[in-house]
Amino acid sequence: MTKLTVKRVYDPPAPGDGRRILVDRLWPRGVSKDRIDLWLKDLAPSDALRHEFHGHPDHWDEFCIAYATELGSPPAQAALATLAAERKQGPVVLLYAAKDENRNNAVALRLWLDGRPNSVQE
């Protein structure tokens, strides 16, 4: 299993990062394309879910459940297959732009992936 980490997109790239993959629906302000290797916006929560969570960060558990449901959609499944292929090549960093380092979609995605045996971790 290759290394999968989560990092804020505004943090500087590190030598051991591997592939830097943005998992937000919107491109982060002020970030040049050379800091991101791949943009998998279909792994991001829907606009409706993103807005709902933004207004209620204390609803983290509900957000994670709703997001997990969205990850079952065909576009998200295709993006997960791309992520799996990237992980077979080496380390991957899931990038996000949110200010909250503990409660954001990349962390939720990582938690979801960690709980799914025989999924993208292979």
Automatic annotation (TrEMBL):
InterPro entries: YeaO-like. It holds the Pfam family DUF488-N3i. This is Uncharacterized conserved protein YeaO, DUF488 family. It comes from Bosea robiniae.
